[in-house]
Amino acid sequence: MADRRDLNQLGLNAGKKARLHRILHHHGLRNGTALFLPYDQGLEHGPRDFFANQEASDPHYVLRLAVDGHFNGIAIQIGLAEKFYWDYAGEVPLILKLNGKTDIPPSDHALSPLHAGVEDAVRLGADAVGYTLYVGTPAQSEDFAQYRQIRAEAQRAGMPLVVWAYPRGSAVGAKGGRSSFYAVDYAARTASELGADMVKVNFPHPEMRTGVPPSYDAEFSAQQAIDAVVRSANRTLLLVSGGERAGDQAMLDKARASIRAGATGLIFGRNVWQRGLAESLRFVERLHDVLSEAKPRAGATDPAR
Ligand SMILES: O=C(CO)COP(=O)(O)O
């Protein structure tokens, strides 16, 4: 089986390999794991996400947090990237989110429209682009077609493509729901089938079993579920998201299970910046500790090489 932490085994072109290497080597851990700070919730959920810590509504505050917390990258939309990233360019890698939408319309026909292209990412000095793909909605074919254009552009530019693979829509709702093991596992596999370089998923919930296909209707532990999801992603590097603010211990357990399963890293937003700065940085330290527990690649002197 391919070693997911050896970039030479992932079938990448030189530009993608160089950029992913920059991301994974951005700070001292160098064991092939990564911690990302997502900051597109202002579009996806609206300003309500900043009520818990008003300072986080200021992009400067969150970019500074990404730098001071030694994140391997920050994921933002074009508007913030153009107006704020300049001050931090090179200090933290940029993942430019290319599509996004509000949460005001119902999500059954969800399709996330494009607001930027791979050329914008090159101009802004990004090391990856992000695309939200909704798996299982009636608009899925349209989404796949839009995604295909972006994937072709990213391939030509040597730009790594990170897919936010989100199961959505009433059909998914009737089969366990968007965070069920079934739905998350299928989303990870879909991103890998469609050629994503990295995929971001929610942590799977094996206990959400109402309506799931029979193979998923059994007692799986959280560890078994995330192990399977990482396998489904195969040569696509896998990131696990934080989700809504929850207890730190629950977050750390989820992080540890993901890293143990072979996930490349974590993409935690609200659980990081929905609290005061000092507390955020302390929590980030604990996440770095979890990432540092990942086993070095067998035989590698520099484990991320
Ligand atoms: O990737 C994410 C949003 O783009 C995850 O963010 P949260 O950790 O806030 O759920």
UniProtKB/TrEMBL annotation:
Pfam families on file: DeoC
Protein name: Fructose-bisphosphate aldolase
Native organism taxonomy: Bacteria, Bacillati, Actinomycetota, Actinomycetes, Pseudonocardiales
Recorded superkingdom: Bacteria
Residues annotated as the enzyme's active site: Y166 (proton donor), K200 (schiff-base intermediate with dihydroxyacetone-p)
GO molecular function: fructose-bisphosphate aldolase activity
InterPro entries: Aldolase_TIM, DeoC/FbaB/LacD_aldolase, DeoC/FbaB_aldolase, FbaB-like
